[in-house]
Predict the structure of TIGR00725 family protein.
Amino acid sequence: MIQVSVCGPREAAPQDVANAREIGRLLGERGAAVICGGYGGVMEAAAEGASSVGGLVVGVLSGPTRGGATPYLTVAIPTGMGEARNAVIALAGDAVIVVGGSWGTLSELALARRNGTVVVQLGGWRVVDEKGRPVEGVRYADSPVEALWLTGLFG
Amino acid sequence: MIQVSVCGPREAAPQDVANAREIGRLLGERGAAVICGGYGGVMEAAAEGASSVGGLVVGVLSGPTRGGATPYLTVAIPTGMGEARNAVIALAGDAVIVVGGSWGTLSELALARRNGTVVVQLGGWRVVDEKGRPVEGVRYADSPVEALWLTGLFG
Amino acid sequence: MIQVSVCGPREAAPQDVANAREIGRLLGERGAAVICGGYGGVMEAAAEGASSVGGLVVGVLSGPTRGGATPYLTVAIPTGMGEARNAVIALAGDAVIVVGGSWGTLSELALARRNGTVVVQLGGWRVVDEKGRPVEGVRYADSPVEALWLTGLFG
Amino acid sequence: MIQVSVCGPREAAPQDVANAREIGRLLGERGAAVICGGYGGVMEAAAEGASSVGGLVVGVLSGPTRGGATPYLTVAIPTGMGEARNAVIALAGDAVIVVGGSWGTLSELALARRNGTVVVQLGGWRVVDEKGRPVEGVRYADSPVEALWLTGLFG
């Protein structure tokens, strides 16, 4: 089963929420499992979108219980490891789609690239070098459909 | 969704494998998700039993990739955290069912009890105090059906 | 530098506290670093013993800050990973000395044995198989001096 | 004891190595412990600098053993958790100093900011928003001395 991690902030802009919901829906339609952090904002929107079409969603939670998790998860994995769980989310996807920007989200993006995993980004923060030139390694999408396409997982 | 972690050795006795497969099957029939370590032996048997009746199985892997995982998982979560992932398996179940004995298995049992999670054991190692008296806190089952019943999760 | 992890309950019996303090002192005298969980009971006693002779003590904390740590640590490493940090303590020692029994302590003992690390125990819980026979793999000491000797690290 | 995490790439430019060594030395002189990832490049340079003046250095290793660690560590903590250990390094410092850029380094920077920890950066990658404006939250230094000063830990 194809697995895609969808990452983004809990405090998310409306456009990011809408994009995440659509990405979740598209992944669910294609039979891919959505992995996410399991709480609100972009995480919840991706979960809601996938579950709306019967898709499978796994929330890898930072907390030690299922408390506070979005109800749109199929399975919740409480890790009790705090933000170290971001490393698990970064590893668990065949690709990682990032929607919007926050420090937690950036850590997932960076950990995924550290692993060599494909990262596709829709909105959010960018990484540049000291001279302001883009650091290579992230694929930028302009729409949810393009984000899935850029993962290279969906023919 | 009810979630039950099933723990046991990779190098498992035939009786433990048979018990784990039956426990997986019974959990799948009751609509509970099986969480396991995702590799061979008891882990694979529980996964196989659950998937044989269409149940959902999540493997929380110690390795950083899906390599070496049993094919009977619905979703694999590679953690790259080695045996620290045992703490995740111990947290992720509403109850933990232990089948057979090994040091890794015992760590999961102990971590689950540390969290206050219900642990039911079918075969395997026992913990006694310095005077040889059983340490309280684990429920012992004589059969797969009794193991599920002793979790208290299935009316 | 030789590193020895000393594990035991936060709620510890007076004899266990005294043993842990003496083990810490002996390790400090021999120039070995003490690794422990960093909170009260056996952990604090081992730290206090080592620091009383100028020894180095590292507390690997379950919490995300240094809050609640014993003051006898040289360095505190807050992990924010809850009980998953027990796996780190189990890995960080060239040997693990266990003083007294609790579920958390047992998880450290089991994780250390899972790694193949030498475990020496002074008091506390024992592991037996289904027929009540001791499970091999732990060395039992009768005194702090013997505990150090059984690690095999001190000529 | 003040603890400062020093983060940077294993494959580091000569200027980053020189800066990290000087930062380690300055921290050691001020009696602060250096926390680092424990391998080569910036990590080793910071450890070497601190140890050259008798400072204390803790390496929080991604691997499950002390293999491959720089010899300039006082204590090595093998975590066996892969890059999830970056979250521990980000938590363990009263401040985090970043020298140079890489995906692993960026994950530590982001995790530290996610925790609210002060991050000072000397060289390396920058984070900007979609319009190219700097994302606030990181303090930029032009020299090792300024990096220490910007942590706010050294009067």
Q: What stands out?
A: The first helix of chain C runs from residue 14 to 29. The interface with chain B takes residues 81-88, 90-91, 101-104, 106-107, 110-111, 113-115, 123-130, 132, 135, 137 of chain C (CB under 8 Å). The domain at 3-151 of chain C is CATH 3.40.50.450 (Rossmann fold).
